[in-house]
TrEMBL record:
Xanthine binds at residues 107, 150. Residues 14-160 form the Phosphoribosyltransferase domain. The keyword Glycosyltransferase applies. GO terms for molecular function: xanthine phosphoribosyltransferase activity. Its cofactor is Mg(2+). Homotetramer. GMP binds at residues 107-111, 149-150. Guanine binds at residues 107, 150. InterPro entries: PRTase-like (IPR029057), PRTase_dom (IPR000836), Xanthine_Guanine_PRibTrfase (IPR023747). It catalyses: XMP + diphosphate = xanthine + 5-phospho-alpha-D-ribose 1-diphosphate; IMP + diphosphate = hypoxanthine + 5-phospho-alpha-D-ribose 1-diphosphate; GMP + diphosphate = guanine + 5-phospho-alpha-D-ribose 1-diphosphate. This is Xanthine-guanine phosphoribosyltransferase. Belongs to the purine/pyrimidine phosphoribosyltransferase family. XGPT subfamily. Keywords: Cell membrane, Glycosyltransferase, Magnesium, Membrane, Metal-binding, Purine salvage, Transferase.
């Protein structure tokens, strides 16, 4: 199945902005882990969750970091999400309790829905959230409208633009 999504708006995020927002996410998560000793590990949903997960794990001083690879999109067209690589079983434990699963954003929620089914007791955190998928995430920082496409700094490059009054 491939759906073309109507994205009216663009939300362009700089490296500085994602750094600030991921740090804010870490601070919000601090002390929210299970009572018996806090977060055991961070698991990034690749690839978009890797930069936020690095920042969160650095802020919270968590050294056990793993990845789960879920592929959901071809450019802006959504496809059925599938797990390409799972995290280490001993890190996740039985149901993921005490593990922070981090992604850059939740959109329709299909990616998190899949990971939640695998690890129902993990805590799911994203930097950005859209309304449709918000219910799938436990903690996030900034919400944008459903018709917004978020452009991350790793998908962009600086380039020249014409001055506003210089265009014919
Ligand atoms: O809530 P959903 O509608 O499932 O969409 C959100 C997911 O889509 C993007 O990942 P993508 O599958 O494009 O892979 P990438 O992280 O490697 O870019 C994004 O990084 C989230 O993981
Ligand atoms: O870079 C991205 N921006 C988005 O808004 C989005 N939604 C799903 N997947 C996405 N990837
Ligand atoms: Mg992703």
């Amino acid at each position: 199945m491939t759906d073309r999504l109507p994205h009216e708006k663009g939300f362009h995020v700089s490296w500085d902005q994602i750094h600030r927002d991921a740090r804010a996410l870490a601070w919000r998560l601090d002390g929210k882990g299970p009572d018996d000793g806090g977060w055991r590990a961070v698991v990034a949903i690749t690839r978009g969750g890797m930069a936020p997960a690095m920042i969160v794990s650095r802020e919270l001083d968590i050294r056990v970091v793993d990845t789960i690879s879920v592929k959901s999109y071809n450019h802006q067209a959504q496809t059925q999400p599938r797990v390409i690589k799972a995290p280490q079983a001993d890190i996740m434990g039985d149901q993921g309790e005490g593990v922070l699963v981090v992604d850059d954003l939740v959109d329709t929620g299909k990616t998190l829905e899949l990971v939640r089914k695998l690890y129902p007791k993990a805590h799911f955190a994203t930097v950005y959230a859209k309304p449709e998928g918000r219910g799938m995430v436990d903690t996030y920082i900034t919400e944008v409208s459903q018709d917004t496409w978020i452009f991350f700094p790793w998908d962009m490059a600086l380039q020249y633009v014409e001055p506003y009054r210089g265009r014919d």
